[in-house]
Specification:
Blueprint: E1 14-17, H1 22-49, E2 56-57, E3 60-61, H2 64-98, E4 103-106
Antiparallel strand pairs: 1-4, 2-3
């Protein structure tokens, strides 16, 4: 069967860049980390709501509604901390590697016309 909309890696549009702007890289890293951490913390909060020892504050487990609230407060804090750490490491690595050889980025173009 022929799928006209299917693309392989070879025919994807690509650009060659020396580095990625810090803000764009931060958004990419934040999207990836938040998409994993926030649901994970919500899951741990729900488990704490039902009595599991999944949420700890000052070395002590927190149960019930307090555990759920603590998990909801911890989710954005830990997401932000890990985002900054990973973003900083990636940004430095891209700056160093980009000074030797440019990167080729393959992407999927937006098919929507701009207004």
């Amino acid at each position: 069967m022929d799928y006209p909309l299917e693309r392989t890696v070879d025919d994807a549009p690509k650009i060659c860049v020396k580095r990625i702007k810090a803000g764009s890289l931060f958004i990419l890293v934040a999207a990836g980390i938040c998409s994993i951490f926030i649901p994970l913390f919500i899951f741990f909060g729900i488990l704490a709501l039902f009595g599991c020892e999944t949420v700890h504050l000052n070395g002590h487990p927190v149960f019930g509604i307090a555990g759920l609230i603590a998990a909801l407060i911890m989710a954005p804090i830990f997401s932000f901390i890990f985002t900054v750490i990973v973003w900083l490491a990636l940004y430095i690595g891209i700056r160093v590697c980009g000074s030797f050889k440019p990167f080729t980025i393959r992407y999927v173009a937006d098919d929507k016309p701009k207004a």
